[in-house]
Amino acid sequence: MKLPGLAVFFFLLGIASGAVADSIKKIETDAFAGVVYQAGDIYIAGQPLDPNALKEMQHRGVVTVVNLRTPEEMKSQGPMAVEKEIVEAMDMNYVYLPSGGPDYPYSPDTVKHFAEAVANSTGGVLLHCASGRRASDLWVAYLASEKGVPLETAIEMGKQVNFGSQPFEAFLGGAVERRLKGAEAQE
Asked: CATH code at 44?
């Protein structure tokens, strides 16, 4: 009896994963550094260049902005150095999760906080860093750890959203299959 139930579960999981993968689209705009991709209600992007970039996202239904840039990075952003104030003046939610470098290491807590921001949002979420690379990495981790998307599927989806191939893969001559530690015990 358990086998058909598991088969249905994995079938539905495949549909859900495919639905997100099929809905990934690039947004053509020059209002951001790097790229902007939409995956459902989440927009993965580089740095908004000015307040008009945020207005553009607001018109697309974004109500929450998640910024991964460190304080040091934000100092050099001209008018966007006060991004929090700009976002809040537009009646949007601002979530600051600085990530990168020795003072702000990547961690599972960041994924949890991002998941909370998505869950608490009443509309779209803009997830950004400088170029979109860290944002896409966080999105992949979120899909794998919070949404139940198989890791390899999440990585493939991330490659569609500025994740690209990892430099070590090129050094090794191609894609590398990866597993999370402890995943073998769950199989």
From this structure: 3.90.190.10
CA distances from 56 to 30, 123, 149 (A): 11, 14, 30
Select from 52, 187, 37, 21 the least CA-distant residue to 124.
37
> Between vectors from CA 88 to CA 83 and to CA 90, what angle results, nearest 5°?
100
Q: Judge whether residue 3 has pLDDT over 50.
A: no
> Residue 50's domain spans which residues?
19-186
Helix (H, G, I), strand (E, B) or coil at 8: helix
Rounded mean pLDDT, 35-48: 95
Q: Which of 74-78, 107-111, 146-150, 155-159 has the lowest mean pLDDT?
A: 74-78
SS (H, E, C) 54-74: HHHHHHCCEEEEEECCCHHHH
- pTM metric for this prediction: 0.81
Is 89 part of a structural domain of the chain?
A: yes
Domain count, the chain: 1
